[in-house]
Structure formats: structure tokens, C-alpha cells
Amino acid sequence: MIQLTNVTKLYGTVIGVNDMTLDLAAGAYGLLGPNGSGKTTLLSLLTGQLIPTIGSVRVLGESPRNNAELFRRLGYCPGSEGLYANVSALEWVRYLCQLQGFTSKDARRAAEAALATVGMTAAMNRPIASYSRGMRQRVKLAQAIAHDPDLLILDEPFNGLDPIGRHEMGELLKTWIAEGKSLLLASHLLYEVESITDRFLLINGGRLLASGTAAEVQALLVDAPNEITLRTTQPHRLAGLLVEREITDSLRISDHSVVLSTRHPGQLYEQLPSWLAESQIAITEMHSADESLQALFNSLLKIHRGEVV
């Protein structure tokens, strides 16, 4: 479905995508990375808006650059706003369908169906300028699916949606996948992607850090230290206890908290309650930084740099 071979994209001296090689079969994938990680640059390469400085890009077996035939098989929902304020959603989506080769009648039918799918029928004849951000996001998705593409590429599609809108968007995308169509969904929020697919591409600094299912990505981090914060009124006593139990790789005291790094979080979670009871130490809060997407990337970067052995 998507093949990248040694792809690098430079903006002057700034690297947008760094020596990326990738071969994705048809299916649904989440493209995950912090803001500024290179997600949008990668999507722009896949949709032919940018050409690589080095390497080659193939989408559905073809080069995406100035390829009208390929565009008929792609649906793209950009992260940026690109809507005409003084036209209605129906006019805009219908016009884009006509650019795909639809007759005027078929374009109107396809536009109405797509807008109904995203819940915009009641407002589709109003000017886009009167829409909320969430409504504009729905219209962008409608134009991406109206021509029934084989591959749907979405850049931060949940932005601007309220909780109900997010749920409805998620259900729509699940239906899309269930119908056997392909999807590439870019987001900086792990939970958004987890609700849609369990296959991920993780990038940071323009580099591909890992790819695979959630379980496969987590398996890469089996030997990577987990950072855990414990808040207590007796941080020095707690730190001494943890050092005594030889459960930490590193440890520091910060205000009324003990921040530790361990390769054995399961053992710590299991045995910590009894240790605290024996020592009569109370903790008021415990959380793991590695539950966050940023921490996952930090761990993968450390592995990539050889900082974790």
C-alpha cells in the first residue's frame, strides 16, 4: 500500500523526514508522534504535496506527485484549514467530487451522502463561515470520503470535535475499516488512535522509531527503565527503603516526592504495599510517566541512541 525507500525531506538545513524506509500492506495504521515530529511532512510526501529530497515514495504502487489517477483512489483530510468561507458545505464537497471526474448530478449525490455520513445534512446549505470548528472538521472528512477512495489519510481528524463528535468520528472510522478499506490516521494522542486500530507507526524528529501492534511496540521496551513518581510526607525514608530493596536503577527526591527508575515495575507494584505497611510509610499519590505517549517516545529514543542497554 505504502512504500518509502530511504526517504529524507529537507527544508534548507532543517530535517522534516530523516532516512525513512517503510513498507505497509493494506490495512489501518495510526501515525503517532508529538507535535513537530514530522507527521504532517510525511503525509504531505504521501499525498504528493512535497517531493522527497532523497529517496522514493510509492502509494498504491504509484508515485503520488501530480498523479490525478492516484488521487481518485486517495482521500485526504488535512490538519490545516482550507475551506472557502462563503460557500456551503454541499457546494464545496460537490465541486471537489467534480474535480475527481464525477458528473454534476453524481457529484451532488455523492456530496449529500458523505455529508449525511458525517452528520452535516441539516447545515450543509449554510455558508462554511457560519460553522463551528467541529463542523468544519466534519466537512473536511466528508470531502475525503465522498469519492469512495481506497485509502483514507487523516491528519489530526479529531481536532475541534466535542466528545460526541469524537465518538461519532471514531465509529465512522471503525466502519470504514470493517468494510475492508485502508486508513492512515495521524495524531499526537495515543488514546485517539488506540480506539481505532492497534497498529502503530511511531515517529519523532522525522525518524521512524518503531512500528507494529501495541503489544509489539511495548515488547521493545521490556528492558527499558520505567519512571515512577511516589508522593509521600517521608521522602527520605521511602528513598532509603527502595534502595535497600534493590528495586531501582536510579532515584531522586523532588519536593515531597520520590522519582525512581526501575526495570521491574510489576515487582514494585506487587510488593510496595507490604513494604510500606512494614515500614509505616504512607504515600498519597503514585503515577508512571511511561503511561504517556511522550514517555514512550523518550524510551524509544534512548534505545535508538544506545542509552539503554
Descriptive overview:
With 309 residues, the chain is an alpha/beta fold. It folds into 2 domains: 2-219, P-loop containing nucleotide triphosphate hydrolases (Rossmann fold); 226-305, Alpha-Beta Plaits (2-Layer Sandwich), CATH 3.30.70. It is built from 11 helices and 13 strands. α3 crosses α4 (104-117) and α4 packs across α5 (133-145). The chain is elongated. The model has no long low-confidence stretch (mean pLDDT 86). It is an enzyme of class 3 (hydrolase). One of its GO terms (molecular function) is ATP hydrolysis activity.
Write the topology of this structure.
Elements: E1 2-11, E2 14-24, E3 28-32, H1 39-46, E4 54-59, H2 68-71, E5 74-77, H3 89-99, H4 104-117, H5 133-145, E6 151-155, H6 163-178, E7 182-187, H7 190-194, E8 199-204, E9 207-213, H8 214-219, E10 226-232, H9 235-244, E11 250-254, E12 257-262, H10 265-279, E13 283-288, H11 293-305
Helix pairs in contact: 3-4, 4-5
Give me some keywords for this one.
alpha/beta; Rossmann fold; Alpha-Beta Plaits; 2 domains; 6-stranded mixed sheet; 4-stranded antiparallel sheet; 37% helix; ATP hydrolysis activity; hydrolase; EC 3.6.3.-; transport; Daunorubicin/doxorubicin resistance ATP-binding protein DrrA
